[in-house]
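Complex 373.
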Amino acid sequence: HYHRHFNFCAGPAALPTPVLERARDEMLDYQGRGLSVMEMSHRSAAYMAIAEKAEADLRDLLAVPANYRVLFTQGGATQQFAAVPYNLLGPGGRANVINTGIWSKKAIAEARHLFGDVHVAASSEAGGHLAVPRPEEVVLSNDAAYLHFTANETIGGLAFDYIPGSEEGGPRRPDGSEAPLVCDMSSSILSGPLDVSQFGVIYAGAQKNIGPAGLVVVIVRDDLLDRARTDMPSLFGYQALADAGSMINTPATYSWYLAGLVFEWLKDEVGGLAAMETINARKAARLYGAIDASDFYSNPIAIPNRSRMNVPFVLNDSRLDKTFLAEAEAAGLLNLQGHRSVGGMRASLYNAVPEAAVEALVDFMADFENRRG
Ligand code: PMP
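Predicted structure with 4'-deoxy-4'-aminopyridoxal-5'-phosphate bound:
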């Protein structure tokens, strides 16, 4: 028998309990085959069926148009900071990136490290990343090969409330031509419905809303597959990955399988991404509401840009941080410590974090404030 605490970790994050139960049940003997999914050849018929079902369910959930390829690759979202420019810069093109916080800055730093010049198309840094740049502040360079942005800054708890440059299709260079939009959706993918057709490339590390670590999902539009440099590691290549069905080499088979179980859970038990979004909106409203109603806790992010997935907050008396965290853990509320770079608290409310977890957290916070405030 087991007892599961409420887990607010930013990643690797909580997985849905029914998914873990099913993985447990299928662990030793997968559907009568006498071995676990971990022990299967990735080229076996049984595994190919798992891989294909996962892709089909993800396509279904996100309504991925037919002219997009879905890749299941590795190296974390961090590897995509390199893979994106390798695949998309082309001759004479420049990376254009919006800076909204730590993960955007890492994407900028990697593109700069590999290819030199990066154009920062807009930045919220001067204002301390408390609100995303307004659409009209996003200015591309004429040689923009693409515009990259981070839909949800996991550490800052800052989320876009619009798709940059999408008003007339893609983002525009000063000469009026369109540039593909590239989005790091590591901490927000599958939190609600998405119009994939607005994007050239979407990528997401799995360890938040998709499944276990070790897997990255990349969704790339067909017409962008032919721009890759030739002098790059072959495993980075979107075309090569697409041609090989994401099996140039051995993929992260078990993570891919578990991601498939998460997609099935989203479809069959949650009822799809619109239903998921309604629940996520309720969870976030409950926690931000509690924070805003107290003068003991606070969150500084502009209301339209508050992340539904990652809710950072501080105790107005930071001397109580350690006690807060220790008492929370004793109450079965895990991983509320903010990122080491910013301190304070952070509650990540990914899809697998149930509403009961948020209720328990809000009750604990009120009780702590009453006793210590
Ligand atoms: N981008 C975002 C928005 C993230 O939250 C993270 C991880 N927290 C990353 C990129 C890096 O992901 P990985 O650790 O999978 O490389």
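The chain is about 35% helix and 15% strand.
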